[in-house]
Specification:
The chain has 213 residues and is of the alpha+beta class. The radius of gyration is 17 Å and the shape is globular. It has 4 helices and 12 strands.
Amino acid sequence: MDVTSEGELIELEDASVRVLVFAGSRRPLAADGVLRGLIGSASGVPADDVELVHACAVCGARHGRVSVAYPLTLSGAPWYADVAVHGDAIVAAATTRHPLGVGIESAAIDAAGVIDEAAFHVGELAALDDLDPARRALVRATLWARKTALLRAIGHTDFIEPSRLALSIPGDDGGVGRIVRSVPEFGSVWRQVRFHDVPVPGNRAASVAIIGR
Protein backbone atom coordinates (compact mmCIF):
# COMPACT_ATOMS: atom_id res chain seq x y z
CA MET A 1 0.00 0.00 0.00
CA ASP A 2 1.18 3.51 -0.80
CA VAL A 3 2.02 5.07 2.57
CA THR A 4 1.71 8.56 1.10
CA SER A 5 -2.04 7.98 0.82
CA GLU A 6 -2.30 7.22 4.54
CA GLY A 7 -0.38 10.16 5.96
CA GLU A 8 -0.52 13.90 5.39
CA LEU A 9 1.65 14.87 2.43
CA ILE A 10 3.00 18.42 2.55
CA GLU A 11 4.79 20.13 -0.33
CA LEU A 12 7.32 22.80 0.56
CA GLU A 13 7.21 24.23 -2.95
CA ASP A 14 9.80 26.97 -2.53
CA ALA A 15 12.30 24.35 -1.37
CA SER A 16 11.10 21.45 -3.57
CA VAL A 17 10.76 19.25 -0.48
CA ARG A 18 8.09 16.65 0.19
CA VAL A 19 7.15 16.01 3.83
CA LEU A 20 5.04 13.09 5.03
CA VAL A 21 3.43 13.21 8.48
CA PHE A 22 1.93 10.25 10.31
CA ALA A 23 0.30 10.40 13.74
CA GLY A 24 -2.09 7.99 15.42
CA SER A 25 -1.99 5.49 12.57
CA ARG A 26 -4.27 2.48 12.92
CA ARG A 27 -1.50 0.13 11.85
CA PRO A 28 2.07 0.08 13.15
CA LEU A 29 4.50 1.84 10.87
CA ALA A 30 8.28 1.79 10.86
CA ALA A 31 10.11 5.06 10.31
CA ASP A 32 12.24 3.60 7.53
CA GLY A 33 9.13 2.22 5.84
CA VAL A 34 7.55 5.66 5.80
CA LEU A 35 10.71 7.25 4.40
CA ARG A 36 11.08 4.53 1.75
CA GLY A 37 7.45 5.06 0.76
CA LEU A 38 7.95 8.80 0.43
CA ILE A 39 11.09 8.46 -1.69
CA GLY A 40 9.54 5.69 -3.76
CA SER A 41 6.46 7.76 -4.51
CA ALA A 42 8.53 10.79 -5.50
CA SER A 43 11.06 8.88 -7.60
CA GLY A 44 8.83 6.26 -9.21
CA VAL A 45 10.87 3.43 -7.66
CA PRO A 46 9.13 0.66 -5.67
CA ALA A 47 9.39 1.48 -1.97
CA ASP A 48 10.91 -1.93 -1.22
CA ASP A 49 13.79 -1.12 -3.59
CA VAL A 50 14.75 2.09 -1.79
CA GLU A 51 18.03 1.59 0.10
CA LEU A 52 18.67 3.67 3.21
CA VAL A 53 21.97 3.94 5.09
CA HIS A 54 22.04 5.16 8.70
CA ALA A 55 25.79 4.92 9.27
CA CYS A 56 27.78 8.15 9.01
CA ALA A 57 29.98 8.15 5.91
CA VAL A 58 32.82 9.71 7.92
CA CYS A 59 32.92 7.78 11.20
CA GLY A 60 30.43 4.93 10.72
CA ALA A 61 28.35 5.92 13.75
CA ARG A 62 24.57 6.19 13.58
CA HIS A 63 24.03 9.93 13.69
CA GLY A 64 22.97 12.71 11.38
CA ARG A 65 20.51 12.41 8.54
CA VAL A 66 19.78 9.24 6.62
CA SER A 67 21.70 8.62 3.37
CA VAL A 68 19.89 7.24 0.30
CA ALA A 69 22.02 4.65 -1.51
CA TYR A 70 19.28 3.94 -4.06
CA PRO A 71 17.68 5.44 -6.09
CA LEU A 72 19.77 8.27 -7.49
CA THR A 73 18.33 11.21 -9.38
CA LEU A 74 18.22 11.24 -13.17
CA SER A 75 21.52 13.15 -13.18
CA GLY A 76 23.14 10.58 -10.88
CA ALA A 77 23.04 12.81 -7.80
CA PRO A 78 21.84 11.55 -4.41
CA TRP A 79 18.46 12.12 -2.82
CA TYR A 80 18.49 14.01 0.47
CA ALA A 81 16.18 12.60 3.12
CA ASP A 82 15.58 12.21 6.83
CA VAL A 83 12.98 10.93 9.26
CA ALA A 84 12.18 11.58 12.92
CA VAL A 85 9.90 9.83 15.41
CA HIS A 86 8.17 10.88 18.61
CA GLY A 87 5.66 8.48 20.15
CA ASP A 88 3.12 7.60 17.46
CA ALA A 89 4.22 10.47 15.21
CA ILE A 90 6.56 10.07 12.26
CA VAL A 91 7.80 12.93 10.08
CA ALA A 92 9.75 12.12 6.91
CA ALA A 93 11.16 14.52 4.32
CA ALA A 94 12.89 14.10 0.97
CA THR A 95 14.24 16.23 -1.86
CA THR A 96 16.71 16.11 -4.74
CA ARG A 97 18.03 19.62 -4.24
CA HIS A 98 19.47 20.35 -0.79
CA PRO A 99 20.67 18.58 2.38
CA LEU A 100 17.96 18.49 5.03
CA GLY A 101 17.23 17.19 8.50
CA VAL A 102 14.07 16.55 10.50
CA GLY A 103 13.44 17.21 14.18
CA ILE A 104 10.40 16.52 16.36
CA GLU A 105 10.04 17.34 20.04
CA SER A 106 7.44 17.18 22.79
CA ALA A 107 5.98 20.38 24.17
CA ALA A 108 4.53 18.66 27.21
CA ILE A 109 7.58 18.77 29.46
CA ASP A 110 8.69 22.06 30.97
CA ALA A 111 12.47 21.81 30.70
CA ALA A 112 14.57 22.65 33.73
CA GLY A 113 16.61 25.83 33.63
CA VAL A 114 19.92 24.03 33.30
CA ILE A 115 18.66 22.25 30.17
CA ASP A 116 17.45 25.51 28.66
CA GLU A 117 20.82 27.16 29.28
CA ALA A 118 22.59 24.35 27.39
CA ALA A 119 20.10 24.35 24.51
CA PHE A 120 19.24 27.99 23.88
CA HIS A 121 21.07 31.22 23.16
CA VAL A 122 20.68 34.02 25.70
CA GLY A 123 18.60 35.93 23.15
CA GLU A 124 16.28 32.95 22.75
CA LEU A 125 15.97 32.57 26.53
CA ALA A 126 14.99 36.22 26.86
CA ALA A 127 12.35 35.81 24.15
CA LEU A 128 10.98 32.69 25.85
CA ASP A 129 10.75 34.50 29.19
CA ASP A 130 8.62 37.18 27.56
CA LEU A 131 6.04 34.67 26.33
CA ASP A 132 2.84 33.62 28.01
CA PRO A 133 3.45 30.25 29.77
CA ALA A 134 0.77 28.59 27.66
CA ARG A 135 2.66 29.47 24.46
CA ARG A 136 6.18 29.16 25.83
CA ALA A 137 6.29 25.34 25.87
CA LEU A 138 5.39 25.00 22.19
CA VAL A 139 7.81 27.74 21.10
CA ARG A 140 10.58 26.11 23.15
CA ALA A 141 9.85 22.72 21.58
CA THR A 142 9.85 24.26 18.09
CA LEU A 143 13.20 25.94 18.66
CA TRP A 144 14.70 22.68 19.85
CA ALA A 145 13.16 20.74 16.95
CA ARG A 146 14.75 23.27 14.57
CA LYS A 147 18.19 22.88 16.15
CA THR A 148 17.91 19.11 16.17
CA ALA A 149 16.95 19.15 12.49
CA LEU A 150 19.89 21.43 11.65
CA LEU A 151 22.45 19.23 13.39
CA ARG A 152 21.03 16.19 11.61
CA ALA A 153 21.21 17.97 8.26
CA ILE A 154 24.85 18.90 8.84
CA GLY A 155 25.81 15.38 9.91
CA HIS A 156 29.39 14.70 10.96
CA THR A 157 31.00 17.77 12.48
CA ASP A 158 32.83 18.86 15.59
CA PHE A 159 30.55 19.28 18.57
CA ILE A 160 28.64 22.54 18.44
CA GLU A 161 26.92 23.79 21.56
CA PRO A 162 23.31 24.55 20.61
CA SER A 163 23.32 27.54 22.94
CA ARG A 164 25.82 29.30 20.65
CA LEU A 165 23.22 29.41 17.87
CA ALA A 166 20.37 31.89 17.90
CA LEU A 167 17.36 31.27 15.68
CA SER A 168 14.39 33.45 14.80
CA ILE A 169 11.50 32.96 17.20
CA PRO A 170 8.68 30.65 16.03
CA GLY A 171 5.45 32.55 15.64
CA ASP A 172 7.29 35.78 14.88
CA ASP A 173 8.85 34.47 11.67
CA GLY A 174 5.79 33.03 9.94
CA GLY A 175 6.83 29.41 10.34
CA VAL A 176 9.99 29.76 8.21
CA GLY A 177 12.90 30.24 10.57
CA ARG A 178 16.43 31.50 10.05
CA ILE A 179 19.71 31.58 11.94
CA VAL A 180 20.15 35.08 13.33
CA ARG A 181 23.42 34.45 15.20
CA SER A 182 25.81 31.79 13.92
CA VAL A 183 29.15 30.24 14.89
CA PRO A 184 32.47 30.36 13.00
CA GLU A 185 32.30 26.63 12.30
CA PHE A 186 29.39 27.22 9.91
CA GLY A 187 31.23 29.75 7.76
CA SER A 188 28.79 31.41 5.36
CA VAL A 189 26.51 28.34 5.18
CA TRP A 190 24.28 29.68 7.93
CA ARG A 191 22.88 32.29 5.55
CA GLN A 192 21.48 29.47 3.40
CA VAL A 193 19.64 27.64 6.19
CA ARG A 194 15.85 27.74 6.45
CA PHE A 195 13.60 26.01 8.96
CA HIS A 196 10.13 24.97 7.82
CA ASP A 197 7.90 24.13 10.78
CA VAL A 198 5.52 21.23 10.15
CA PRO A 199 2.18 20.81 11.97
CA VAL A 200 2.00 17.56 13.94
CA PRO A 201 -1.05 16.35 15.91
CA GLY A 202 -0.66 16.27 19.67
CA ASN A 203 1.40 18.47 21.93
CA ARG A 204 4.47 18.29 19.70
CA ALA A 205 6.54 20.45 17.37
CA ALA A 206 8.35 19.40 14.22
CA SER A 207 10.62 21.19 11.78
CA VAL A 208 12.59 20.51 8.61
CA ALA A 209 15.97 22.24 8.31
CA ILE A 210 17.11 22.82 4.72
CA ILE A 211 20.64 23.90 3.80
CA GLY A 212 20.50 25.76 0.50
CA ARG A 213 18.20 28.00 -1.50
